[in-house]
Amino acid sequence: MNTTKEIEESIVKKFRKSIWNKFLKGVKEYELIKEGDKIAVCISGGKDSMLMAKCMQRLQKYSKTPFEAVYLVMNPGYNEINRQKIISNAELLGLPIQIFDTRIFDAVAKIDNNPCYLCARMRRGYLYKQAQDMGCNKIALGHHFDDIIETILMGMLYGSQIQTMMPKLHSENYSGMQLIRPMYMVKESDIIAWKNYNDLDFIRCACRVTEKNNRCDNDEGGSKRQEIKLLIKELREINPAVDMNIFRSVENVNLQTLISYHIGDKYHHFLDDYDEGINIKGRKTDLQ
């Protein structure tokens, strides 16, 4: 197993192009970090959040934009083995984590209808509250590129809507707080490659569902997301650029070609002004 220094250096040397540069691209392109930010880097104990924490730690050292970071671990009720694994991995990676305990797993243990969704909502709320109490104005989560494109397809195929997982969001319930996703441009396969290269072993979901059923749903629904993962894998064999094309599709939306869309509660339909020959930009269309 590599040392703390070797693990960190691997991010900017061996995985510079696939991880570090893409991490920086996401941070810069979406303006995720600004001078004076105090960011709660939220660590679940999995590969994604642990790598995010290392990237944030290095960025904090060398960035020309000064910001503070705290490395926050919420314990929703992990068993002692998983809790200790998080602590051991944090020590190996040189992450000065702060742990706070909750009883979320106990609260959702007896819920039969969509317990994973409720668990995710509760975890998000606890993280916002704890970060705010610590004087933070942002929380950082470890969602990566594959999470983004899977969310897009899940919305279309299972939710009958076009949506995506945004790189940053204002909190609706915690005033002044934002959520950022610094790993937005980093692919999961590259995270796995970094983990394997450094011979690292992280916890997965570690929830009660995992312990009982040997699987884990995430906040979007595990079985459906797994179906989407397999679908994208098949599509990549036909077109290696398919994942980037899916991603770009939500950057290149032409509202003039949509039947309807909404911004908040305000809905727009192409028939609203179709008979007047006015397109969505308010200009006269060709009526021939």
Write the layout of secondary structure elements.
Layout: H1 4-12, H2 16-29, E1 38-42, H3 47-62, E2 68-75, H4 80-93, E3 97-101, H5 104-108, H6 115-133, E4 138-140, H7 145-157, E5 168-170, E6 178-180, H8 188-197, H9 208-213, H10 222-238, H11 242-249, E7 260-263, E8 266-269
Parallel strand pairs: 1-2, 1-4, 2-3, 4-6
Antiparallel strand pairs: 5-6, 7-8
Q: In words, what does this structure look like?
A:
The chain is α/β, with parallel strands linked by helices. It folds into two domains: 4-145 and 160-208, Rossmann fold (3-Layer(aba) Sandwich); 255-288, no CATH class. It is built from eleven helices and eight strands. It has helices at residues 4-12, 16-29, 47-62, 80-93, 104-108, 115-133, 145-157, 188-197, 208-213, 222-238, 242-249, and strands at residues 38-42, 68-75, 97-101, 138-140, 168-170, 178-180, 260-263, 266-269. The strands form two sheets. It has a six-stranded mixed beta sheet with strand order 3-2-1-4-6-5, sandwiched between helices. The chain is globular and about 65 Å long. The relative contact order is 0.14. Mean pLDDT is 89; it is low at 214-221 and 284-288.
In short:
With 288 residues, the chain is of the alpha/beta class.
